[in-house]
Design goal:
The chain is of the alpha+beta class. The chain has a single domain, classed as D-amino Acid Aminotransferase, Chain A, domain 1. 20% of the residues lie in helices and 31% in strands. Strands 4-3-2-1-5-6 form a 6-stranded mixed β-sheet. The longest helix has 14 residues. It is globular and about 40 Å long. It starts with 14 loop residues before the first strand and ends with a helix.
Length: 131
């Protein structure tokens, strides 16, 4: 399968990764320059800064809440509604939401969630979401 290369203004677009538990976005990470100097920044479901991060450097630039952010949350929650946990990846290119991927195994289960205690906090959200 060959996919079209997505770009925004000649660069790789910001990758929005929504962490969803039983169809509810709990946090998201923004990934910048994934094929260059990969940096991330985390937010809660209301786009307020969050302490969660990976082993990548933190993006220190401006992170503006997209105008259609609430719609992105709705899309992520709809796509993940049938799963106890799912990460839903979306792009927002010039105001147009585009699907990236869905995965129950973020980072191929090798990416470190930091601070380490937050790995446990995410696990508790998963356990609470179970019937």
């Amino acid at each position: 399968m060959v996919e079209e290369f997505l770009q925004h203004e000649g660069r790789v677009p910001i990758d929005y990764k929504f962490y969803c538990f039983s169809g509810r976005v709990e946090l998201l990470t923004l990934h910048f320059d994934r094929f260059g100097i990969h940096k991330t920044r985390s937010f809660d479901r209301d786009f307020a800064p969050h302490v969660f991060h990976y082993q990548f450097s933190a993006h220190d630039g401006v992170c503006e809440r997209p105008v259609n952010f609430d719609e992105m949350v709705t899309v992520a929650e709809h796509l993940s509604s049938e799963f106890e946990f799912m990460r839903v990846d979306l792009y927002n290119i010039a105001g147009r939401i585009q699907f990236g991927e869905m995965t129950p195994y973020p980072g191929g289960v090798t990416t470190k969630f930091l601070p380490k205690s937050f790995d446990w906090e995410l696990g508790k959200k998963w356990m609470r979401s179970r019937p």
